[in-house]
Amino acid sequence: MTFQPRTPVALISIHGDPDITIGQEEAGGQNVYVRQVGEALAALGWPVDMFTRRSHPDQPLIVQHRPNCRTIRLIAGPEEFIPRDQGFPYLLEFVEKFQKYQAETGIQYELIHTNYWLSGWVGLELKKHQLLRQVHTYHSLGIVKYQAVSDIPKIAHTRLNVDKLCLETAERIVATSPQEQQFLRELVSEIGNINIIPCGTNIDQLGQVSKADAREKLGFDPQGKLVFYIGRFDPRKGIETLIRAIANSKFRYDPQLKLIIGGGSRPGCSDGLERHRLEKIVDELGLNDITQFTGRILDEELPLYYRAADVCVVPSHYEPFGLVAIESMASYTPVVASNVGGLKFTVIPEVTGLLCPPKDEMAFTEAIDRILSNPNWSKQLGEAGRKEVETQFSWQGVALKLSDLYTQILSEPAQLLRIKHKF
Ligand code: UDP
Fold first, then answer.
1. Of all atoms in ligand 1, which is nearest to the CA of residue 199?
2. Is the minimum distance from the CB of 230 to ligand 1 under 6 angstroms?
């Protein structure tokens, strides 16, 4: 296949570095999304530059991942990790550095795809000064998030304004599920253009090993009942619900039951504190013997964990998309998830897994026990999950849809954003 040369595209992801090790603090779905979308678009012939903020002086300023696909780190604010809720003061500097980069290299981007509201703000600011089309993916919606958490950060008001302005002025919003589109319309604004393009997963890397082999490689009991969680340690991920559900399971005293909780954290940082809180609950409930906190799971081992598990649990209070659910399905492992956000779109109840009301420990216990009690049915759920991912959620398919969207938007004239926003 030969490709037409295409206009360079800037994917902007200020706090979600596409080149970072996933499982480090605050690194999760957004980092994976930007990197995978970037690489898949590059494979279709788009020159893709992924802009992020340098968060450590040792990080290279430019990383070439493959022909046509680079991570470019701009220095904006201190070269250290900054939690996303504290990133706003450095955005103006990021805009200036982006403009400087264009001036120095002679590359003038005509299309930017911004990720999360911090980058969304940068996009709005850039559009005041240069002719640009903006595509925006939220990854998380302020209004929905703040309904689900008890401590609302000081920056909330600004974020809600930026979320709304992005929806109303970006050339296109990419919602990753119909549920997200509905939230945007009902809770943010009636104005603005939305396309639904889901997240994807790497179907060639997941589900390529048998369950027996995966267990052998990881040293798990071939007959074990393995319940798996993977993801960030954040209270909104609902890991406490899972732990309490396991404490009520009818297999609670079965020596074959094992709860594996995977994901990285750093002591003293927000995710380290959450992990510490959860370890105390595990201890109080007397689950130490059956629970294993693995820490960050390496990319090479993650497919083995997914495949070795009998059930993967995604107990989030709120989940805009939830990559873990489709990664599990791609690995032939049924999912028990909260009945929220993108999980309602990806997990088909009774077909690829089960959905439960968020925070409802008893419902999670019942769902997990149903799957653990019935291996034949569980196998059917796993097969159906794999099929669903192959047809709906590959990164290649996602990139094709984005590529069509970019082509269409680039064929339309760009306009300077004439709006004075003060946040
Ligand atoms: N991941 C992780 N922890 C690890 C290794 C990988 O969370 O130790 C990956 C996981 O496989 C998934 C992503 O990080 O691809 C988490 O994405 P999701 O959408 O489920 O949650 P988010 O981080 O966006 O809240």
1. 19
2. yes
